[in-house]
Specification:
Length: 98
């Protein structure tokens, strides 16, 4: 089989699915979801400024920060090497007699 075996298939996310089902069961007006958002904002604004709540709000509003691709203790950081080769190919003459 060639290609990506998971191509075209969405990854299973059972926790997300369970949350969506429970929120849907609470009604279409999203009151429960708004209450959760309100509580998250309160947690972020509290004196201790819960870092997890602040990070979650930032990730949801601005998007997650891009992660750098780096090496580890045993290997250097990943580097990209590009090589451009210009090769002139002269075709061999074709014998018209075959």
């Amino acid at each position: 089989m060639a290609g990506n075996a998971n191509s075209g298939r969405k990854a299973e996310k059972p926790f997300r699915d369970a949350l969506r089902m429970e929120l849907a069961a609470l009604g279409d007006d999203h009151k429960a979801l708004r209450q959760i958002a309100r509580n998250l904002i309160k947690m972020a604004m509290d004196e201790e400024g819960k870092l997890d709540a602040i990070k979650e709000l930032a990730d949801r509003s601005d998007g997650k920060v891009a992660q750098a691709i780096v090496g580890d203790d045993e290997q250097d950081a990943i580097s990209v090497v590009t090589k451009i080769v210009r090769e002139i190919v002269r075709p061999q003459p074709v014998d018209p007699n075959g």
